[in-house]
Amino acid sequence: MNRAPSLSSVDYLLWTRLSMDFFPYAATPDDAEEHPVTEIPGDPACGVIVLCDHASNEIPPEYKALGLPEAQLARHIAYDIGAAGMTRALAEAFGAPALLTNFSRLLIDPNRGEDDPTLVMRISDGAVVPGNARVDHEEVARRIKRFYRPYDRAVQTTINSAMSKGVRPVILSIHSFTPVWRGTPRPWHTGILWAKDPRLSRPLIDRLGAEGDLVVGDNEPYNGALTGDVIDRHALANGLSNTLIEIRQDLITKAHDARAWGLRLAEVLRPLLEDPVHRLDYRSSTGSNA
Ligand SMILES: [Zn+2]
Q1: 91: CA distance to ligand 1 center in Å?
Q2: Ligand 1: centre distance to CA 287 (Å)
Q3: Model pLDDT, residue 40
Q4: Which of 22, 206, 229, 287 is deepest in the core (most CB within 10 A)?
């Protein structure tokens, strides 16, 4: 995930100039068969749900790639490189259900609240997104309905399915980050992000650190507390144990590396998840409303 890049005056100039030449809006084709979410079936009673909010760089053809050249769509601004492969490996290792988005976060970011100003990015890591420059409320509402809410509903439905079997699932949210941000190299191999519920993230940080070969970030390279993000909306709101795992993209660019990382994470997580503390409702166990 990326958070709140600032808008320099040069960026702004570029943005306004490009936005004059691009008219992106296209109504949803009536007969289009939409598949905004990939659902990997698993056993809801296994106690784990794996989420990948930024799995894909797909943009439906009528959006004309949001006016971006292909090279930009291959970058991290369009999706979390390697995250889908890790997610699939984790789901396989646990026999867990997993949900992956089939749309680029450049269209709309499902890991933001609906009222978050970065829900639809006009500029991302220095790249102007012409197809987003003139997005108005109606177009945002259209993208919310077409992409954002189907994913949001699928996450809650999967959680409800586990809860209906008497299981409080642990939520694993899988992301990746760039090795360099604005010229500064990032030292971490992995970053564990958390907000109000440290039950899983704290011991996971300790275990990963004990592996001996990893630089592990605690709420690095981002702070995990983001009102309205997926963890907030679905894990904290339901009192479910959770962690958000970020892996540096250069470690998982190749499919077999992403898979190996997913399987490695599963083995680190497995003994931690056996702790019955993860089956408690965090809100009632702490008296907090999380
Ligand atoms: Zn992400």
Answers
A1: 18
A2: 31
A3: 97
A4: 229
User: Does any domain span residue 214?
Assistant: yes
Give the domain range for residue 172: 35-277
- At residue 12, the pLDDT reads 40
CA distance 184 to 68: 25
Protein residues near ligand 1, an ion, with CB under 5 A: 1, 54, 80, 175
Q: What is the whole-number distance in angstroms between the Cα of residue 53 and the centre of ligand 1?
A: 6
DSSP letter assigned to residue 116: -
Give the CATH number, domain containing residue 46. 3.40.630.40
Say how far apart CA 137 and CA 234 lie, in whole Å. Answer: 25
The reply to whether 17 falls in a domain is no
Low-confidence spans in the chain with pLDDT less than 50: 4-27, 30-31, 290
Q: Using CA atoms, how far apart are residues 277 and 199, in angstroms rounded to an integer?
A: 8
SS3 107: coil
Amino acid at 108: I
177 CA distance to ligand 1 middle (Å): 7
Q: Is residue 192 part of a domain?
A: yes
CA distance 175 to 82: 8
Q: Is residue 285 part of a domain?
A: no
**Structural domains in the chain (count):** 1
Ligand 1 center from residue 79 Cα (angstroms): 7
User: pTM score, two decimals?
Assistant: 0.89
- Secondary-structure breakdown of the chain: helix, strand, coil percentages, each rounded to the nearest 5: 40, 15, 45
Model pLDDT, residue 21? 43
